[in-house]
Amino acid sequence: MSQLYKWIFEEGKNEDVHKTILTSQTGSYSLDDIRQEVNKYCSLLTQLGPVQRKRVAFMIPYASSFLSLLLAVNRLGAVAVPISPFLRSEDLSRLLEFINPHVILTIRQHQNFQFFNAVSQWAHGTGEETIIYDSVKGDHWKATVVAGMPKPVESEPVDIIACTSGSTGVPKGVMVDFNFIQFGDAALSAALSLSASDKVLGIVPFSGLFGLCLMVVSIKKRLHFVATESFHFPDIIRLLHTHPVNKLVTSPSLFRSLYLLAKKPVLEPLELIGLAGERITADFIEAVRPIDHCRIISIYGLTEIGGVMFSKNDVRQGMDWELVPGVEAAIVNAPDKREIGELVVKTPNGFLGYYQRPDLTQEAYRDGWFYTGDVARMTESGAIEIVGRKKEMIKKGGQQVIPGEIESLLASHPSIFAAAVVGIPHPIFGEQIVAFVVPKEHVSDTNLYSFCRERLASYKVPDHIFTIDEIPVSQGKADKVKLQQLATKRIAARE
């Protein structure tokens, strides 16, 4: 523990500590600014006693404060638990109950939600001691000690516990150590060809492991990292206008929206666009084909293991995956090597398991191989082709249906902007297929059903197709838990 701080600050040579290395909507910061802020947080966190191996959770929407607090927690040997500032009462309480942090740092309110009140209410209901620091803007902090029984500290070393909602909405904690960041450095450097002369914009939540790793690796390389603290596109476009970048990292859906809304001069300085978090669809390829002044690549990875593959060529020339150096990949449980099976990978990273869930760890991580849950096949040339998610696979009447196949087909319809497919329970067939589409223009359900019937096996044709204004997103991906809930409500309303 505490290697991350040393890696950032204590391995440097003679350098310009006043060079701007981080910019956000809040301001611009140098390495020296970050170092001073880390020192401030170290003093704050230790004023009420040592925090070594204690769980320190923080909900900070400001990039510089987030980075400095992460490094301070690591420097003190505590366990960093970054939490998204976009969570609200029910999800936040569920996550806090699961992690049960010793210390919580939170802004008082954000986007009209009273974070301090929600955190305080949770802490008072535990019967255990919790220290809460709150701030209006992430600068001046007030300490509140909620009295109670002491909580046990972590018995095994872990640097970060990253929280995800999981496929069922139940929180999962992904435990990683410094090796995860080092592997992230290798993966991102290989995929994005990062250098100190780059200026990189990340439109990705930095409270998640991918965004966190992108920020930390960028700072380590002393390039200029631009982090958006808002996912409101006018805010992002203004940030791009005042701070032009040559590289951009985001998800396909977010980039597509940016491309539609931004004026061409704002995007002209881009040399490379790195996309992660979602599959690249044929419809996306067609939508971005006019961008002829820069390369567009895709990065494949998972929260638990980071990025493991990236596209060697521009995605518009076809998806040709290259493994990150040090990564091995195989396809298991396939009838033969050309059939569909589950993708498994072996990496040198620091995945330590799921917090308090050894059963999930054993299921996903066996003999050094991580079972990705992604369905894939090996092409005749030996390349890997990702087909869909195993856990999202729908079992209808004994037949297995891959949502990604239907999503790609619907998204290729000339009147459809985006599509997402989920399965929900059915009393006779086990599961039924529900498709959500975001239309470019009016299109009838009859048209879409006919479109699917002409191109899909009958058991793959959606049982229900619903129109929606936009696909809900969580951590850069379609939020299929919300879509399943919405599907249940809409079907009930029809019956």
Question: Can you describe this structure?
Answer:
There is one protein chain. The chain is globular and about 70 Å long. It is an alpha/beta fold and 495 residues long. The longest helix is centred in the N-terminal third of the chain and has 16 residues, at 31-46. The protein has two domains: 1-391, Rossmann fold; 394-494, 2-Layer Sandwich (GMP Synthetase, Chain A, domain 3). It starts with a helix and ends with a helix. It has 15 helices and 29 strands. β14 (295-302) and β15 (306-311) form a beta hairpin.
Blueprint (SSEs and pairs):
Elements: H1 3-9, E1 20-23, E2 28-30, H2 31-46, E3 55-59, H3 63-75, E4 79-82, H4 89-99, E5 103-107, H5 115-124, E6 130-135, E7 141-146, E8 160-164, E9 172-176, H6 178-192, E10 199-202, H7 209-220, E11 224-227, H8 233-242, E12 247-250, H9 252-261, H10 264-267, E13 272-276, H11 282-288, E14 295-302, E15 306-311, E16 321-323, E17 328-332, E18 341-346, E19 351-354, H12 358-364, E20 365-366, E21 369-378, E22 384-389, E23 394-396, E24 399-401, H13 403-411, E25 416-426, E26 430-439, H14 445-453, E27 464-467, E28 473-474, E29 477-478, H15 480-494
Parallel strand pairs: 1-11, 3-4, 3-5, 5-6, 10-11, 10-12, 12-13, 13-14, 26-27
Antiparallel strand pairs: 1-2, 6-7, 8-9, 9-19, 14-15, 15-16, 17-18, 18-21, 20-21, 21-22, 23-24, 25-26, 28-29
* Number of DSSP helical runs: 15
Strand order of the largest sheet: 2-1-11-10-12-13-14-15-16
Please write the CATH class name of the largest domain: Alpha Beta
How many individual β-strands? 29
- Rg calculated over all Cα atoms: 23 Å
Integer tally of domains:
2
Intertermini distance: 56 Å
CATH superfamily of the largest domain: ANL, N-terminal domain
Main beta sheet strand tally, sense and closure: 9 strands, mixed
Percent helix among the residues?
A: 25-40%
Counting helices, strands and paired strands, the structural category is alpha/beta
